[in-house]
Design a protein that fits this description.
By secondary structure, the protein is α+β, with helices and mostly antiparallel strands. The protein has helices spanning 24-29, 37-41, 55-66, 73-77, 92-101, 129-132, 151-158, 162-170, 176-181; strands at residues 10-13, 19-22, 108-112, 124-128, 141-144, 147-150. It contains nine helices and six strands. It is elongated.
Length: 193
């Protein structure tokens, strides 16, 4: 059979018995393998959990990339420091099951309790993203009122802008107390000896 645009068409019979008109090239290249019944009855081989591109799946993918050999700062800060993912979590379904049973919500971020430890059930928890950003190797830790905390948390308690307090300490050499308790625009006073 020839179509109106001079392309040949074949009338073929599917294994299920249905007849269909197809372009010969589709049969040769494998674009047509049945009348459509194959797609309806065979489960999609790539769909394993149905959660690709969800936030939780993206967290899992990012975690795996950071802990795999490659190029970039993420590999340098994770893989080349010896940080790995436990074998159990190489399976997304296992990771997702752990995440949901340990309080995962879309507003939370995965946190390693020991920043030098691996991604594994006993070393991970879910925390608010703002809190997670404070628990990095580059976090500046201080002691305020007898309690160890991040400089960012100390700035919140004292209602002082982090950037200015950090600059006072690192660039100007101020003490923590002066940097936190002298008001913005106020002058640093000399301590009595």
């Amino acid at each position: 059979m020839k179509s109106g645009n001079t392309q040949w068409l074949w009338n073929v019979r599917c294994d299920c018995g249905t007849e269909k008109i197809v372009i010969p090239n589709d049969l040769v290249t494998g674009h047509a393998v049945s009348c459509g019944c194959y797609r309806k009855h065979k489960p999609c081989p790539t769909k394993t959990h149905g959660e690709s591109h969800t936030r939780l799946h993206n967290i899992w993918e990012s975690m795996r990339k950071r802990c795999s050999p490659g190029i970039g700062s993420a590999c340098k800060d994770y893989y080349y420091r010896g940080i790995r993912i436990c074998n159990q979590w190489n399976d997304y379904k296992e990771f997702a099951s752990w995440a949901r049973s340990h309080g995962y919500e879309d507003s939370l971020s995965i946190e390693r309790i020991d920043v030098n430890g691996n991604y594994e059930p006993d070393n991970c928890k879910w925390i608010p993203i703002t809190e997670q950003a404070r628990n990095r190797r580059t976090t500046h830790w201080v002691e305020l009122m007898g309690k160890k905390m991040s400089l960012a948390e100390a700035c919140e308690i004292c209602r002082m802008p982090y950037k200015q307090v950090f600059e006072r300490i690192k660039k100007r050499g101020w003490s923590l107390d002066d940097a936190l308790f002298i008001p913005m625009g106020g002058k640093r006073h000399k301590r009595c000896g």
